[in-house]
Amino acid sequence: MEYSSIQLNHLSDEILIYIFKKLSNAEIVYSLSGVNKRINKIVHDSIFTNDLSLLMSTSDDLLYSLPDLILNRFCSHILPSIDQKIEWIHLESV
């Protein structure tokens, strides 16, 4: 069997959405916003933006705030572009 290379852009939107739904919404939006127009349209869809948790959980179910670098990018670049689609946002109370 020959080595083949499949890139993210080779997958259909339906497959990408299925994969992305298995991950944290905040991670998807943060990591893939601005990659290209097609990916941007998918990750800015209300499927991923209507309920955002800006927290990370550990394997022992503890919750922590996202690192400042990530929160800063969310607040300055990402949230303004999706603010009309957000219904719930979960934050650390500190």
UniProtKB/TrEMBL annotation:
<feature type="domain" description="F-box">
    <location>
        <begin position="5"/>
        <end position="52"/>
    </location>
</feature>
<protein>
    <recommendedName>
        <fullName>F-box domain-containing protein</fullName>
    </recommendedName>
</protein>
<dbReference type="InterPro" id="IPR036047">
    <property type="entry name" value="F-box-like_dom_sf"/>
</dbReference>
<dbReference type="InterPro" id="IPR032675">
    <property type="entry name" value="LRR_dom_sf"/>
</dbReference>
<dbReference type="InterPro" id="IPR001810">
    <property type="entry name" value="F-box_dom"/>
</dbReference>
<dbReference type="Pfam" id="PF00646">
    <property type="entry name" value="F-box"/>
</dbReference>
